[in-house]
Amino acid sequence: MIHLKTAEELEKMREAGRIVALAHEAVRNNLHPGMTTKELDALCESVIVNAGAMPSFKGLYGFPAATCISVNSLLVHGIPDDTILQEGDIVSIDIGACYQGYHGDSAWTYAVGTISEADQKLLKVSEAALFEGLKYAKAGNRLTDISHAIGEYVFSYGYSIPRDYTGHGVGRSVHEDPTVPNFGPAGYGVILKPGMTIAVEPMVLAGRPQTKVLKDGWGVVTKDGANTAHYEHTIAITNNGYEILTTLNKEEHPENG
Ligand code: MG
Ligand code: MG
User: Fold this and answer.
1) 97: closest CA among 199, 201, 195?
2) Would the pTM count as exceeding 0.90?
3) Is residue 242 a contact partner of residue 233, using CB atoms and an 8 Å limit?
4) Which of 12, 46, 66, 154 is the most exposed place for a label (fewest CB within 10 A)?
């Protein structure tokens, strides 16, 4: 069941989203070669807690840390640990914050120092894929209009998309209905309505689409060892388009798509 948020609920989700964006800003300002993923996690957790929220992922399904940090061929759900970030790595940080019972969820992939041209292209295309999808985030459109736009864009560059990981509704829980696929035919799924809040999150693989779960039961890596990227925003469908909730730079995006 999809719960349409009231104006009051959206206010709380804006604040949750703002706090997630603050944690990403802290990552951007502090990320450097030589730091461990655990240090990055602690940084994010302190930003979230100091802003009066709680990290959404800590304890979610038993996850042991505040954020998911996934380096290079790790796609999602990496457990922060003593891994030292090296010059040339790409690191995806998935951050959730819960403020007064409402969640925001946003992932971003960052370059550690100078990265290869191939990885620069992977990041650029994957970030652009998120915004290609959001062009269709508009009341009256079907949910998979977003999915289709993401998939077509990513596939046009010869990259692939994992089958088993998707975006989702978000609000009183981190994961709510509906499931938001990252590829597939347009014109299916629910009709988008003002007050729907969803996390749109293309996950992009530079190689083949197959993935496997690490022995720790969490981390998801590419089977072929190719690098990966992950870009996610929590958005609200509005009367004129959509609003990104997980940003410090609030603006609506009317008349897209
Ligand atoms: Mg996320
Ligand atoms: Mg998500």
Assistant:
1) 199
2) yes
3) no
4) 46
